[in-house]
Amino acid sequence: MRRLVTLVAGLCVLASVAAVPAAASGTQTGQNCAFPVTLTDATGTEVTLEERPERVTTTNPSAAQTMWEIGGRDQVVGLTRYASYLEGSESRANVSASFGISVERVAGTNPDLVVAPNATGPEEVAALRRAGLTVYLLREPTDIAGISEATRTIGQLTGNCEGAAEANAWMEANVEAVRNVSDGATERPAALYPLGGGFVAGGDTFIDVLLAVAGADNAAAEYDGYPELSNEALVELDPEVLVVTERTAGYAGQEPYASTTAGERNATVRLRVRDLNQAAPRSVVNSVHNASRQLYPDRYDDSIYVPRSAVRNVTGDQPTAGATTDTSPATTSGGSGPGFTAVSALVGALVAALLVARRDR
């Protein structure tokens, strides 16, 4: 057990690698997509691109999803298996290993740039750089502003600034629309997102913000990050609603959650795991609309959804080549393909650790 605790602590350190705000220098400032460009990544490394990268490989699906949203899909030559839901992803190289990414497969895509969200471990980033690759490690977004920053950064690095601005405007317009649904509600339900094995999404996380936007209070907000809680502590939190996914749909009927108000009432909000675990514009839009629709069925109306076309009309932008053109948020039905960011990376590693611990007994 002591070995498992040590492993968990190490994983948490890796998931929270030091984040340095992206700082632009050289010829590029704000939304100016001129090259060369130099940006400082989450490792404190200055990354310089002399020209717009034609070949981009992403090491987590949140970055791949963002490339699709900002009009950069044609630049993407490699992505992980967890981004297989993206249209056209089958024609890109799969750079996944049995766990994490394969440095050899990433190098085999011959990328001009590797975009690595924060769930990519520092050892993997170092290995990619030793292979002679240009790697930019993004900071971990814990709120909407962080997701906007990551989207802008990817836009700057890949020469898709206008698409990034449009994606952010679309996301922020929908966030504001959903916030208005719960305005004036006499009570906000206490919600909990269990990850399995006693782990939950606490405060200072992407999940915490999504719940707040949708009109719920995070029952575990007093704990930062993704803590492991005892059964007694979980019952004491007493959530009124459980947020479940296709992986955890039966949790309301299982202990310790069955002994909470949510379990007794079988009160759940079902969202897609990839939307909850991939901190990117489309995931935000899908999650907040779907959660609000279920939390406030008498107040929510589908007409509040803001399509991309409305944002273009306001900004005067032309449609971004390759960007999404959907006209409504995707519902939880028919969802497939798990996310793989800091949340799911932690869960996957914990599962592996548990298996090792059991085997060693």
What would you note in describing this structure?
The structure is a single chain. The chain has 361 residues and is of the alpha/beta class. The chain has 2 domains: 2-171, Nitrogenase molybdenum iron protein domain (Rossmann fold, 3-Layer(aba) Sandwich); 184-357, Nitrogenase molybdenum iron protein domain (Rossmann fold, 3-Layer(aba) Sandwich). The chain has 13 helices and 14 strands. The strands form 4 sheets. A 5-stranded parallel sheet has the order 6-5-4-7-8, sandwiched between helices. Strands 12-9-13-14 form a 4-stranded parallel sheet. β4, α2 and β5 form a beta-alpha-beta unit. α1 runs antiparallel to α13 (342-360) and α6 crosses α12 (308-315). It is globular, with a radius of gyration of 20 Å. The chain starts with a helix and ends with a helix.
Question: Could you say what the CATH architecture of the largest domain is?
Answer: 3-Layer(aba) Sandwich
Total tally of structural domains = 2
Number of strands: 14
Task: Write down the secondary-structure element order.
Answer: HEEEEHEEHEHEHHEEEHEHEHEHHHH
What low-confidence regions span 5 or more consecutive residues with pLDDT below 50? Answer: 1-30, 333-361
Strand order of the largest sheet: 6-5-4-7-8
Looking at this structure, what is the CATH superfamily of the largest domain?
Nitrogenase molybdenum iron protein domain
Instruction: Predict the CATH topology of the largest domain.
Output: Rossmann fold
- Give Rg in angstroms: 20 Å
Number of helices: 13
Strand content: 5-15%
Query: What percent of residues adopt helix (DSSP H or I)?
Result: 25-40%
Alpha-beta content class? alpha/beta
Q: What separation lies between the terminal Cα atoms?
A: 10 Å
For the record, the CATH class of the largest domain is Alpha Beta
